[in-house]
Amino acid sequence: xxxxxxxxxxRGTHSSKWDNxxxxxxxxxxxxxxxxxxxxxxxxxxxxxxALQESLxxxxxxxxxxxxxxxxxxCNWMEKRHQAKFKPEWVSPTPGIVxxxxxxxxxxxEPDDEVVLFPPAYHAFRKIILANKRKISDAExxxxxxxxxxxxxxxxxxxxxxxxxxxxxxxxxPGGNAWSPDEIRELADFCISHNLILVSDEIHCxxxxxHAKHIPTLSAAPEVADRLITCVAAxxxxxxxxxxxxxxxxxxxxxxxxxxxxxxxxxxxSYNAFGMLATEAAWQTGEGWLEELLSYLDSNRHFFDQxxxxxxxxxxxxxxxxxxxxWVDFAGTGLSPEVVANRVKDHARIFxxxxxxxxxxxxxxxxxxxxxxxxxxxxxxxxxxDAFSDLR
Length: 392
Ligand SMILES: Cc1ncc(COP(=O)(O)O)c(C=O)c1O
Prior knowledge:
Blueprint: H1 16-19, H2 21-25, E1 33-35, H3 46-58, H4 69-82, E2 91-94, H5 97-108, E3 114-117, H6 123-131, E4 135-138, E5 142-143, E6 148-149, H7 152-158, E7 163-169, H8 181-193, E8 197-201, H9 217-220, E9 228-232, E10 246-249, H10 253-265, H11 273-285, H12 287-311, E11 316-317, E12 325-329, H13 337-347, E13 350-354, E14 365-369, H14 374-387
Parallel strand pairs: 1-13, 3-4, 3-7, 7-8, 8-9
Antiparallel strand pairs: 2-10, 5-6, 9-10, 11-12, 12-14, 13-14
Helix pairs in contact: 3-11, 4-11, 5-6, 5-10, 12-14
């Protein structure tokens, strides 16, 4: 049994989550708690550490030979966990999903073309679109019963001849939706009728709670396969974000060729050996560890949702189907977003992700990562309770 309660000191270890707090949040207190980036405070599954240890013991760290086992491990995992029918020959490894998204944009669109997002949406989507000199078309999600839904009427009105690509996050970050087959099919039909490339970022697909199920976009809507690129990775699931490797998958050979050309043109066709070894071992050996993790995260999720409403009267957390990222709406507190942000930052000494980063629909919110040992989470909730004690 993995002891997820164990606190592993990460300060001073080149951990972005812990060592970038002062630089990125402005919190100067040494006891600050990072609840921002999607990175867990848990050790990787033993099979991953074992595979890396074997490599370290050998001590020779030359170029990596891709014999196809990595793509096979990715497809086997997606089939076993999600009944997805991906084939290894459809897979292109990239140095992470965000870099994959940039390469996809270069492969299927031109500067000044428009990319649809469903905000509030993962902030790196916005950054990579703008960094590639494409434009963002925001189709803001609508909240209904603490869950987001897509608004296809507004989406249709946004389209111009320059709209080429849709970035779909399934499950959604930060809303935590596992989209239903009907919702996915409606989006797929929309992409087909408007000649759009659909990119389905499924990096959070394994971090799913017992009441929900992840439906891969390809499974819900096989008819969109020709214009679909699915992105998956082992890095969120098994806490290997520093391994920086992901998979972009499409059954459309021409689309894959265009993507592979961009990968080649950027010199990215040779892969980081440590990342490949770690993530392949994770897919091959990590399932038992993942089951334990999911049960731990589920109890942290319940604890967070209950505590936040008591600690901060008026605050409401989105009902998460997936992810360990609580998306909290502070509008009901009656405090301005600035006051809320300052109390969380200065009084509670907690670095949460500011809602504005996620685009339209984010301004009254903060995103809290609760994938941390329970004692740290308990401390965080107590600090929030103290910071908002005047509201009770
Ligand atoms: C939806 C989504 N896509 C991609 C990423 C990052 O992927 P990578 O580190 O492989 O670039 C994240 C990280 O939080 C994410 O939430």
